Request: fold
Amino acid sequence: MKKLALHWKILLGMLAGVLFALLLTNFDWGAWFIGDWIKPFGTIFISSLKLIAIPLILAALIKGIADLKDISSLSKMGMRTISIYVVTTVIAVSIGLTVVSLIQPGKTINEDTRTELVEAYGGDADAKLQAAAAQKESGPLQALIDLVPSNIVSAASSNRNMLQVIFFAVFFGISLILIPEEKAKTVKEFFDGLNEVILKMVDLIMLAAPYGVFALMAALVVEAPSPDLFAALAMYGVSVVLGLLLMVVFYIVLVKVFTKKSPTFFLQGIAPAQLLAFSTSSSAATLPVTMERVTEHLGVEEEVSSFVLPIGATINMDGTSLYQAVAAVFIAQAFGMDLSFGTQLGIIATATLASIGSAAVPGAGMVMLVGVLGYAGIPEAGLALIFAVDRPLDMCRTVINVTGDATVSMLVAKSQDKLGDPKVKNWDDTYVK
Ligand code: ASP
Reply:
């Protein structure tokens, strides 16, 4: 029998997880069983992916920069990467604003639903507000201060500090270029080897992916809030998802126009990473797989992917920024507010910054949304309105975040003449050796 491609296996695992959970919810002990005996396997799966994120960034980035051989190509690539990231994010927010203004989902929320949602989720929203308040108590240059770790071991001890680890790796890589070749050789070879080992670890973990996503989806289904609330928020959800789908079209066009690669090639190559982003809601947890897919299956040379992707996972969140724009306007509409053109322009700027500041973990986009609401004078209590459907939308926006990073890595690679043929022709060869 012809072997099933990995993305189909993952998709089947997800579907089976949903069906299994729906079946078990018919029994009193169903939710308990899934919580105690199924969910842990999902948690282990995510942990094993997160486990290799920091070593991967260190090894891949140091090796990637050392391979560049001179600082000017690094700064050229850096400028290009950051500029494309900012442009795609601004486009994402603008698409979000357009969609939400056309559909006007907030107008479908009546007084009763609003009260019901605020009562049901006011408490949960408070936790997000507190997290946001903690972030707010800082000066304008705090982001810059946070970039430079005072201790690399403690920085590397949390996946939330990825930017600090990236800073260290870039600094280390640059210094490696600047020392004499014969001294640098051993260090380079070490990181080169380490990088290979870690990519092999990704392969091995991915063998378990269909089972891991089965457990994750089953747990999500039993923990999901009541379907009635979903229905009340349907138009809002549709607006976010529609915006996100438009982003996919946008990426496909970008890839086609600038790299001449077909949509099938691109989507097949990146699909396992997208499915994982959907199941884990975390770009950080997905990073090792994104890296592997982009390098081995989309033909982006490691020099580029190892630089563009870790940075993208932390600062380029097109899906998140689009969602923040839609959510902010939706809440404003639900509270009967009209937003001026100037305020909407401000939302573009704040949602771009908020998405850059969002950590690559589940629910982070919602915490940073508070900043956008605050800027536009929209009641923060509105967070409670969107709480019920935040997780499914988080899953969808994370897919876009990851797809955006992959797209930009292809564009940067093309512009640097570092986009070749994929190393793996047969889509799943890497995983079954
Ligand atoms: N979960 C998203 C990510 O990891 C961030 C967010 O929008 O909450 O990319």
About this structure: Residues 30-68 form the longest helix (39 residues). The domain at 6-415 is CATH 1.10.3860.10 (Proton glutamate symport protein). The chain has a mean pLDDT of 90. The radius of gyration is 22 Å.
